Protein backbone atom coordinates (compact mmCIF):
# COMPACT_ATOMS: atom_id res chain seq x y z
CA UNK A 1 0.00 0.00 0.00
CA UNK A 2 1.40 3.38 -1.05
CA UNK A 3 0.46 5.97 1.57
CA UNK A 4 0.54 9.60 0.56
CA UNK A 5 -1.57 12.77 0.92
CA UNK A 6 -3.00 13.09 -2.57
CA UNK A 7 -3.25 10.86 -5.62
CA UNK A 8 -3.31 12.66 -8.95
CA UNK A 9 -4.89 10.73 -11.82
CA UNK A 10 -3.33 11.90 -15.06
CA UNK A 11 0.18 13.13 -15.83
CA UNK A 12 -0.77 15.73 -18.42
CA UNK A 13 0.21 19.38 -17.97
CA UNK A 14 -2.65 20.03 -15.53
CA UNK A 15 -1.76 17.06 -13.31
CA UNK A 16 1.94 17.94 -13.36
CA UNK A 17 1.41 21.56 -12.38
CA UNK A 18 -1.06 20.55 -9.69
CA UNK A 19 1.68 18.33 -8.21
CA UNK A 20 3.84 21.45 -8.05
CA UNK A 21 1.13 23.36 -6.23
CA UNK A 22 0.69 20.53 -3.73
CA UNK A 23 4.46 20.47 -3.19
CA UNK A 24 4.59 24.19 -2.53
CA UNK A 25 2.01 23.94 0.26
CA UNK A 26 3.79 20.96 1.75
CA UNK A 27 1.57 18.08 0.66
CA UNK A 28 2.91 14.84 -0.77
CA UNK A 29 1.45 13.32 -3.89
CA UNK A 30 1.92 10.49 -6.35
CA UNK A 31 0.75 10.41 -9.97
CA UNK A 32 -0.87 7.56 -11.92
CA UNK A 33 -1.17 7.58 -15.71
CA UNK A 34 -2.32 5.00 -18.23
CA UNK A 35 0.33 6.01 -20.78
CA UNK A 36 3.97 4.94 -20.59
CA UNK A 37 5.19 8.52 -20.15
CA UNK A 38 4.20 11.84 -18.63
CA UNK A 39 2.68 14.59 -20.75
CA UNK A 40 -0.84 13.39 -21.57
CA UNK A 41 -2.38 14.78 -24.76
CA UNK A 42 0.63 17.12 -25.20
CA UNK A 43 2.91 14.14 -25.67
CA UNK A 44 0.50 11.68 -27.21
CA UNK A 45 -1.31 13.92 -29.68
CA UNK A 46 0.99 16.83 -30.50
CA UNK A 47 4.56 16.49 -29.13
CA UNK A 48 6.01 18.46 -32.07
CA UNK A 49 3.21 20.92 -32.61
CA UNK A 50 3.57 24.46 -31.29
CA UNK A 51 1.45 25.90 -28.48
CA UNK A 52 1.13 29.69 -28.40
CA UNK A 53 -1.06 30.37 -25.39
CA UNK A 54 0.90 29.38 -22.32
CA UNK A 55 1.24 32.59 -20.27
CA UNK A 56 4.74 34.09 -20.56
CA UNK A 57 5.83 31.36 -23.01
CA UNK A 58 5.33 32.82 -26.50
CA UNK A 59 5.83 29.47 -28.23
CA UNK A 60 6.68 25.93 -27.18
CA UNK A 61 5.91 22.38 -28.29
CA UNK A 62 3.92 19.83 -26.33
CA UNK A 63 7.15 18.03 -25.53
CA UNK A 64 8.95 21.18 -24.34
CA UNK A 65 6.02 22.12 -22.13
CA UNK A 66 6.03 18.65 -20.57
CA UNK A 67 9.79 18.70 -19.99
CA UNK A 68 9.62 22.13 -18.39
CA UNK A 69 6.81 21.05 -16.07
CA UNK A 70 8.76 17.93 -15.09
CA UNK A 71 11.77 20.09 -14.34
CA UNK A 72 9.62 22.43 -12.27
CA UNK A 73 8.37 19.57 -10.05
CA UNK A 74 11.75 17.88 -9.84
CA UNK A 75 12.47 19.23 -6.31
CA UNK A 76 9.49 17.33 -4.93
CA UNK A 77 10.70 13.86 -6.02
CA UNK A 78 7.23 12.84 -7.05
CA UNK A 79 6.63 9.18 -7.66
CA UNK A 80 5.01 8.29 -11.00
CA UNK A 81 3.07 5.10 -11.63
CA UNK A 82 2.91 4.81 -15.43
CA UNK A 83 1.06 2.22 -17.52
CA UNK A 84 -1.50 2.03 -14.72
CA UNK A 85 -5.17 2.88 -14.91
CA UNK A 86 -7.09 3.64 -11.74
CA UNK A 87 -9.89 1.11 -11.47
CA UNK A 88 -11.47 1.30 -8.01
CA UNK A 89 -11.95 3.86 -5.28
CA UNK A 90 -13.21 3.00 -1.84
CA UNK A 91 -13.83 5.32 1.09
CA UNK A 92 -12.30 3.91 4.27
CA UNK A 93 -13.12 6.17 7.23
CA UNK A 94 -11.64 9.54 6.30
CA UNK A 95 -9.34 8.23 3.61
CA UNK A 96 -9.56 6.79 0.12
CA UNK A 97 -8.25 3.41 -0.90
CA UNK A 98 -7.41 3.24 -4.59
CA UNK A 99 -6.60 0.26 -6.76
CA UNK A 100 -5.06 0.31 -10.24
CA UNK A 101 -5.17 -2.04 -13.24
CA UNK A 102 -1.75 -3.38 -12.20
CA UNK A 103 -3.04 -4.02 -8.66
CA UNK A 104 -1.12 -1.17 -7.07
CA UNK A 105 -2.88 0.14 -3.99
CA UNK A 106 -2.91 3.61 -2.51
CA UNK A 107 -4.12 5.04 0.77
CA UNK A 108 -4.71 8.78 0.32
CA UNK A 109 -6.54 11.69 1.93
CA UNK A 110 -7.79 13.12 -1.37
CA UNK A 111 -7.89 12.38 -5.08
CA UNK A 112 -7.46 14.83 -7.93
CA UNK A 113 -8.70 13.67 -11.32
CA UNK A 114 -6.72 15.39 -14.05
CA UNK A 115 -7.67 12.82 -16.64
CA UNK A 116 -8.10 14.98 -19.74
CA UNK A 117 -10.70 13.28 -21.90
CA UNK A 118 -10.11 9.93 -20.28
CA UNK A 119 -7.44 7.31 -20.62
CA UNK A 120 -5.85 6.49 -23.93
CA UNK A 121 -6.81 3.06 -25.28
CA UNK A 122 -5.98 1.50 -28.65
CA UNK A 123 -8.58 2.14 -31.31
CA UNK A 124 -10.05 -1.18 -32.36
CA UNK A 125 -11.40 -2.80 -35.53
CA UNK A 126 -15.08 -2.07 -36.08
CA UNK A 127 -15.61 -5.71 -37.16
CA UNK A 128 -17.43 -7.50 -34.35
CA UNK A 129 -15.73 -10.93 -34.61
CA UNK A 130 -12.37 -9.34 -33.84
CA UNK A 131 -13.13 -9.39 -30.11
CA UNK A 132 -13.09 -13.17 -30.11
CA UNK A 133 -9.47 -13.28 -31.27
CA UNK A 134 -8.17 -10.29 -29.34
CA UNK A 135 -5.15 -11.19 -27.24
CA UNK A 136 -4.58 -14.58 -28.92
CA UNK A 137 -4.22 -13.96 -32.65
CA UNK A 138 -5.29 -10.34 -32.99
CA UNK A 139 -3.35 -7.53 -31.31
CA UNK A 140 -3.27 -3.75 -31.09
CA UNK A 141 0.29 -3.63 -29.75
CA UNK A 142 3.21 -6.03 -29.81
CA UNK A 143 4.71 -7.38 -26.63
CA UNK A 144 6.56 -10.42 -27.97
CA UNK A 145 7.52 -10.30 -31.62
CA UNK A 146 9.04 -13.80 -31.64
CA UNK A 147 5.58 -15.39 -31.92
CA UNK A 148 5.30 -14.02 -35.47
CA UNK A 149 8.36 -15.84 -36.83
CA UNK A 150 7.59 -17.78 -40.05
CA UNK A 151 3.88 -16.92 -39.76
CA UNK A 152 1.60 -14.88 -42.00
CA UNK A 153 0.68 -11.51 -40.52
CA UNK A 154 -1.92 -9.06 -41.80
CA UNK A 155 -1.20 -5.55 -40.56
CA UNK A 156 -3.82 -2.80 -40.84
CA UNK A 157 -3.06 0.93 -40.67
CA UNK A 158 -1.08 3.67 -42.39
CA UNK A 159 0.79 5.39 -39.58
CA UNK A 160 4.29 4.90 -38.25
CA UNK A 161 3.42 1.90 -36.06
CA UNK A 162 1.88 0.00 -38.98
CA UNK A 163 4.73 0.84 -41.36
CA UNK A 164 7.56 0.19 -38.88
CA UNK A 165 6.18 -3.19 -37.85
CA UNK A 166 5.45 -4.18 -41.45
CA UNK A 167 9.07 -3.45 -42.36
CA UNK A 168 10.53 -5.18 -39.34
CA UNK A 169 8.32 -8.29 -39.44
CA UNK A 170 8.85 -8.71 -43.20
CA UNK A 171 12.34 -10.02 -42.32
CA UNK A 172 11.03 -13.11 -40.57
CA UNK A 173 7.34 -13.37 -41.49
CA UNK A 174 5.07 -13.16 -44.51
CA UNK A 175 3.48 -9.71 -44.17
CA UNK A 176 0.33 -8.22 -45.71
CA UNK A 177 -0.05 -4.49 -45.12
CA UNK A 178 -3.57 -3.19 -45.64
CA UNK A 179 -4.50 0.50 -45.64
CA UNK A 180 -7.67 2.37 -46.54
CA UNK A 181 -6.04 4.80 -48.99
CA UNK A 182 -2.92 5.30 -51.14
CA UNK A 183 -1.50 8.00 -48.86
CA UNK A 184 0.12 7.21 -45.53
CA UNK A 185 0.50 9.31 -42.42
CA UNK A 186 3.78 7.64 -41.42
CA UNK A 187 7.29 8.89 -42.22
CA UNK A 188 8.02 9.25 -45.94
CA UNK A 189 11.18 7.10 -45.66
CA UNK A 190 9.13 4.23 -44.22
CA UNK A 191 6.52 4.62 -46.96
CA UNK A 192 9.27 4.33 -49.61
CA UNK A 193 10.74 1.29 -47.87
CA UNK A 194 7.35 -0.44 -47.77
CA UNK A 195 6.82 0.26 -51.47
CA UNK A 196 10.28 -1.16 -52.28
CA UNK A 197 9.59 -4.30 -50.25
CA UNK A 198 6.27 -4.65 -52.07
CA UNK A 199 7.98 -4.43 -55.48
CA UNK A 200 10.59 -6.98 -54.39
CA UNK A 201 7.83 -9.33 -53.30
CA UNK A 202 8.97 -9.28 -49.67
CA UNK A 203 5.68 -7.82 -48.49
CA UNK A 204 2.20 -7.51 -49.97
CA UNK A 205 0.70 -4.05 -49.92
CA UNK A 206 -3.04 -3.62 -50.33
CA UNK A 207 -4.26 -0.03 -50.46
CA UNK A 208 -7.86 1.20 -50.63
CA UNK A 209 -8.83 -1.93 -48.73
CA UNK A 210 -10.31 -2.25 -45.24
CA UNK A 211 -11.15 -5.24 -43.11
CA UNK A 212 -14.37 -6.97 -44.06
CA UNK A 213 -14.28 -9.98 -41.70
CA UNK A 214 -12.03 -12.39 -39.82
CA UNK A 215 -12.62 -16.07 -39.31
CA UNK A 216 -11.04 -19.11 -37.74
CA UNK A 217 -11.65 -21.57 -34.92
CA UNK A 218 -9.62 -20.63 -31.88
CA UNK A 219 -7.05 -18.77 -33.91
CA UNK A 220 -7.56 -16.56 -36.94
CA UNK A 221 -7.06 -18.40 -40.23
CA UNK A 222 -8.57 -16.05 -42.81
CA UNK A 223 -9.06 -12.31 -43.16
CA UNK A 224 -11.31 -10.86 -45.80
CA UNK A 225 -10.55 -7.36 -47.02
CA UNK A 226 -12.82 -5.15 -49.08
CA UNK A 227 -11.77 -2.65 -51.74
CA UNK A 228 -13.38 0.81 -52.00
CA UNK A 229 -15.06 -0.44 -55.19
CA UNK A 230 -16.52 -3.45 -53.40
CA UNK A 231 -14.18 -6.26 -54.48
CA UNK A 232 -13.35 -8.74 -51.69
CA UNK A 233 -10.02 -10.51 -51.26
CA UNK A 234 -9.31 -13.40 -48.95
CA UNK A 235 -5.95 -13.48 -47.16
CA UNK A 236 -4.71 -16.48 -45.21
CA UNK A 237 -3.39 -15.08 -41.93
CA UNK A 238 -2.14 -16.50 -38.66
CA UNK A 239 -2.15 -13.12 -36.94
CA UNK A 240 -3.84 -9.76 -37.41
CA UNK A 241 -2.41 -6.50 -36.12
CA UNK A 242 -4.33 -3.21 -36.03
CA UNK A 243 -2.56 0.13 -35.59
CA UNK A 244 -5.15 2.87 -35.65
CA UNK A 245 -3.76 5.09 -32.93
CA UNK A 246 -5.34 5.76 -29.58
CA UNK A 247 -8.74 6.91 -28.48
CA UNK A 248 -9.74 8.41 -25.18
CA UNK A 249 -12.19 6.60 -22.93
CA UNK A 250 -13.57 7.83 -19.65
CA UNK A 251 -13.51 4.22 -18.40
CA UNK A 252 -13.88 3.43 -14.69
CA UNK A 253 -14.32 7.12 -13.74
CA UNK A 254 -17.97 6.63 -14.73
CA UNK A 255 -18.44 4.23 -11.80
CA UNK A 256 -17.30 6.46 -8.98
CA UNK A 257 -20.60 8.18 -8.25
CA UNK A 258 -19.53 11.51 -9.73
CA UNK A 259 -21.91 13.86 -11.51
CA UNK A 260 -20.99 13.35 -15.15
CA UNK A 261 -22.19 15.65 -17.90
CA UNK A 262 -21.20 15.01 -21.56
CA UNK A 263 -18.08 13.01 -20.63
CA UNK A 264 -16.95 15.64 -18.11
CA UNK A 265 -17.11 15.79 -14.33
CA UNK A 266 -19.06 18.61 -12.69
CA UNK A 267 -17.13 20.64 -10.12
CA UNK A 268 -17.55 23.81 -8.10
CA UNK A 269 -15.30 26.70 -9.02
CA UNK A 270 -14.23 27.49 -5.47
CA UNK A 271 -11.90 24.51 -5.12
CA UNK A 272 -12.82 22.20 -8.01
CA UNK A 273 -14.23 19.54 -5.75
CA UNK A 274 -16.80 17.19 -7.28
CA UNK A 275 -20.09 16.15 -5.70
CA UNK A 276 -18.07 13.57 -3.73
CA UNK A 277 -16.09 15.01 -0.80
CA UNK A 278 -12.35 14.54 -1.23
CA UNK A 279 -12.49 13.95 -4.98
CA UNK A 280 -11.49 16.88 -7.15
CA UNK A 281 -11.42 17.24 -10.94
CA UNK A 282 -9.31 19.68 -12.95
CA UNK A 283 -8.31 20.33 -16.55
CA UNK A 284 -10.22 19.15 -19.62
CA UNK A 285 -12.16 16.56 -17.62
CA UNK A 286 -13.98 19.04 -15.40
CA UNK A 287 -16.93 21.20 -16.32
CA UNK A 288 -18.48 24.31 -14.83
CA UNK A 289 -20.19 27.37 -16.29
CA UNK A 290 -17.67 29.17 -18.49
CA UNK A 291 -15.19 26.30 -18.64
CA UNK A 292 -12.43 26.78 -21.23
CA UNK A 293 -10.47 23.72 -22.29
CA UNK A 294 -7.13 25.50 -22.19
CA UNK A 295 -3.94 24.41 -20.46
CA UNK A 296 -3.80 27.73 -18.63
CA UNK A 297 -7.24 27.08 -17.14
CA UNK A 298 -5.99 23.69 -15.96
CA UNK A 299 -3.13 25.37 -14.12
CA UNK A 300 -5.51 27.69 -12.27
CA UNK A 301 -7.86 24.83 -11.42
CA UNK A 302 -4.93 22.76 -10.12
CA UNK A 303 -3.73 25.56 -7.85
CA UNK A 304 -7.13 25.82 -6.21
CA UNK A 305 -7.75 22.06 -6.02
CA UNK A 306 -4.37 21.56 -4.33
CA UNK A 307 -5.41 24.01 -1.60
CA UNK A 308 -8.80 22.31 -1.43
CA UNK A 309 -7.02 19.06 -0.54
CA UNK A 310 -5.26 20.62 2.43
CA UNK A 311 -8.16 20.28 4.87
CA UNK A 312 -8.39 16.54 4.12
CA UNK A 313 -4.66 15.90 4.37
CA UNK A 314 -3.97 18.17 7.39
CA UNK A 315 -7.32 18.47 9.18
CA UNK A 316 -5.72 20.01 12.28
CA UNK A 317 -3.67 22.65 10.51
CA UNK A 318 -4.53 25.92 8.87
CA UNK A 319 -3.22 26.80 5.43
CA UNK A 320 -1.74 30.26 5.20
CA UNK A 321 -1.47 31.98 1.84
CA UNK A 322 2.12 32.70 0.83
CA UNK A 323 4.12 33.74 -2.23
CA UNK A 324 7.02 31.59 -3.41
CA UNK A 325 9.02 34.80 -3.81
CA UNK A 326 9.03 35.43 -0.07
CA UNK A 327 7.94 32.22 1.68
CA UNK A 328 10.78 30.53 3.51
CA UNK A 329 8.81 27.30 3.81
CA UNK A 330 8.00 27.18 0.10
CA UNK A 331 11.61 27.87 -0.83
CA UNK A 332 12.81 25.12 1.47
CA UNK A 333 10.40 22.70 -0.18
CA UNK A 334 11.75 23.79 -3.56
CA UNK A 335 15.28 23.21 -2.29
CA UNK A 336 16.30 26.81 -3.00
CA UNK A 337 19.78 27.47 -1.64
CA UNK A 338 20.52 30.96 -0.41
CA UNK B 1 -27.81 31.45 -40.56
CA UNK B 2 -27.23 28.39 -42.68
CA UNK B 3 -29.29 25.23 -42.68
CA UNK B 4 -27.34 22.06 -41.96
CA UNK B 5 -29.02 18.66 -41.85
CA UNK B 6 -27.66 15.96 -39.58
CA UNK B 7 -28.82 12.36 -40.02
CA UNK B 8 -28.18 10.53 -36.79
CA UNK B 9 -27.70 6.82 -36.27
CA UNK B 10 -31.14 6.43 -34.71
CA UNK B 11 -32.56 7.23 -38.20
CA UNK B 12 -33.63 10.71 -37.12
CA UNK B 13 -33.05 13.83 -39.14
CA UNK B 14 -32.22 17.15 -37.52
CA UNK B 15 -32.18 20.31 -39.63
CA UNK B 16 -30.56 23.12 -37.69
CA UNK B 17 -29.85 26.78 -38.35
CA UNK B 18 -26.15 27.11 -37.64
CA UNK B 19 -24.49 30.49 -37.37
CA UNK B 20 -21.93 31.20 -40.08
CA UNK B 21 -18.40 30.91 -38.75
CA UNK B 22 -19.14 27.98 -36.46
CA UNK B 23 -18.10 24.52 -37.58
CA UNK B 24 -20.45 21.70 -38.51
CA UNK B 25 -19.12 19.97 -35.37
CA UNK B 26 -20.04 22.92 -33.14
CA UNK B 27 -23.48 23.09 -34.74
CA UNK B 28 -24.08 19.51 -33.62
CA UNK B 29 -22.61 19.83 -30.13
CA UNK B 30 -24.40 23.09 -29.30
CA UNK B 31 -27.72 21.64 -30.40
CA UNK B 32 -27.32 18.35 -28.53
CA UNK B 33 -27.30 16.24 -31.67
CA UNK B 34 -26.08 12.83 -30.53
CA UNK B 35 -23.08 11.02 -31.94
CA UNK B 36 -20.44 13.74 -32.23
CA UNK B 37 -17.92 13.43 -29.40
CA UNK B 38 -15.30 16.00 -30.49
CA UNK B 39 -12.91 14.90 -27.75
CA UNK B 40 -10.11 17.26 -28.75
CA UNK B 41 -12.45 20.23 -29.06
CA UNK B 42 -11.92 20.92 -32.76
CA UNK B 43 -8.14 20.68 -33.03
CA UNK B 44 -7.96 17.97 -35.70
CA UNK B 45 -6.17 15.90 -33.06
CA UNK B 46 -8.70 13.10 -32.75
CA UNK B 47 -11.28 11.58 -35.08
CA UNK B 48 -14.37 11.71 -32.94
CA UNK B 49 -16.35 14.30 -34.93
CA UNK B 50 -16.32 12.09 -38.01
CA UNK B 51 -19.26 12.45 -40.42
CA UNK B 52 -20.22 11.14 -43.85
CA UNK B 53 -21.01 13.94 -46.25
CA UNK B 54 -23.85 13.49 -48.74
CA UNK B 55 -22.14 12.60 -52.03
CA UNK B 56 -23.28 15.61 -54.07
CA UNK B 57 -21.71 17.93 -51.50
CA UNK B 58 -18.24 16.39 -51.61
CA UNK B 59 -16.85 18.63 -54.36
CA UNK B 60 -18.37 21.79 -52.92
CA UNK B 61 -16.57 21.55 -49.59
CA UNK B 62 -13.12 23.02 -48.92
CA UNK B 63 -10.46 20.39 -49.62
CA UNK B 64 -8.94 18.47 -46.74
CA UNK B 65 -5.71 19.57 -45.15
CA UNK B 66 -3.07 16.84 -44.84
CA UNK B 67 -3.74 16.32 -41.18
CA UNK B 68 -7.42 15.65 -41.72
CA UNK B 69 -6.87 12.63 -43.98
CA UNK B 70 -4.30 11.30 -41.49
CA UNK B 71 -6.80 11.59 -38.66
CA UNK B 72 -9.51 9.94 -40.75
CA UNK B 73 -7.29 6.84 -40.87
CA UNK B 74 -8.13 6.60 -37.18
CA UNK B 75 -11.88 7.10 -37.56
CA UNK B 76 -14.52 4.43 -37.05
CA UNK B 77 -15.33 2.97 -40.49
CA UNK B 78 -14.02 5.77 -42.69
CA UNK B 79 -15.37 5.97 -46.25
CA UNK B 80 -14.60 8.07 -49.30
CA UNK B 81 -17.15 10.67 -48.18
CA UNK B 82 -15.75 10.91 -44.65
CA UNK B 83 -14.85 14.29 -43.18
CA UNK B 84 -14.02 15.66 -39.77
CA UNK B 85 -16.91 17.98 -38.99
CA UNK B 86 -14.62 20.31 -37.01
CA UNK B 87 -12.93 21.20 -40.29
CA UNK B 88 -16.13 22.27 -42.04
CA UNK B 89 -16.75 25.92 -41.35
CA UNK B 90 -20.33 26.96 -41.91
CA UNK B 91 -20.96 29.67 -44.51
CA UNK B 92 -23.70 30.60 -47.00
CA UNK B 93 -22.10 28.23 -49.52
CA UNK B 94 -22.87 25.31 -47.21
CA UNK B 95 -26.59 26.06 -46.98
CA UNK B 96 -28.45 22.76 -47.25
CA UNK B 97 -25.43 20.56 -46.44
CA UNK B 98 -26.38 17.08 -45.28
CA UNK B 99 -24.14 14.89 -43.16
CA UNK B 100 -24.67 11.48 -41.61
CA UNK B 101 -23.23 10.71 -38.21
CA UNK B 102 -21.67 7.22 -37.99
CA UNK B 103 -22.87 4.50 -35.64
CA UNK B 104 -20.12 5.44 -33.22
CA UNK B 105 -16.99 7.52 -33.06
CA UNK B 106 -14.54 4.99 -31.64
Can you tag this structure with a few keywords?
heterodimer, A: 338 residues, alpha/beta, FAD/NAD(P)-binding domain, 2 domains, five-stranded parallel beta sheet, 23% helix, B: 106 residues, Ubiquitin-like (UB roll), 2 helices, 22% strand, globular
Which strand order do you get reading across the main beta sheet of chain A?
6-3-2-10-23
Any idea how many domains of chain B? 1
Instruction: Report the radius of gyration of chain A as a whole number of Å.
Output: 24 Å
- Assign the CATH superfamily of chain B: Beta-grasp domain
Domain unit count of chain A: 2
- Regarding quaternary structure, what we see is heterodimer
Q: What order do the SSEs of chain B take from the amino end to the carboxyl end, as H and E?
A: EEHEHEE
Beta fraction of the residues of chain A? 25-35%
Structural class of chain B comes to: alpha+beta
CATH architecture of the largest domain in chain A: 3-Layer(bba) Sandwich
CATH architecture call of chain B: Roll
Q: How many helices of chain A in DSSP terms?
A: 8
| Percent range of helical residues of chain B | 10-25%
Number of E strands of chain A:
24
Which descriptor suits the 3D outline of chain A?
elongated
Strand order of the largest sheet of chain B: 2-1-5-3-4
Low-confidence regions of chain A: none
Overall average residue pLDDT of chain A: 95
Helix/strand-derived category of chain A reads alpha/beta
| Mean model confidence by pLDDT of chain B | 92
**Main pleated-sheet profile of chain A:** 5 strands, parallel
Amino acid sequence: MNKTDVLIIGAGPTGLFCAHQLGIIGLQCEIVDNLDKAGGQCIELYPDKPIYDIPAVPECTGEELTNNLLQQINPFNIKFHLNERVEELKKVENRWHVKTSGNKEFDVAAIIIAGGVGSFEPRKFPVKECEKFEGSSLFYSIKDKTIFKDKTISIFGGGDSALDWAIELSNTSKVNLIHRRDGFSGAESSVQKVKELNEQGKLNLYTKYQMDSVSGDNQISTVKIKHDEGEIKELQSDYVLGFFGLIMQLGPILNWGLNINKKTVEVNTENFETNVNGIFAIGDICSYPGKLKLILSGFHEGALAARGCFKYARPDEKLRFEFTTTSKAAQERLGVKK
Amino acid sequence: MTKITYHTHDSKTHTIDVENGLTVMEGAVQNDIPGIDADCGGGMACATCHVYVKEDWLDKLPTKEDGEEDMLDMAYEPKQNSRLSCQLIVSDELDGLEVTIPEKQA
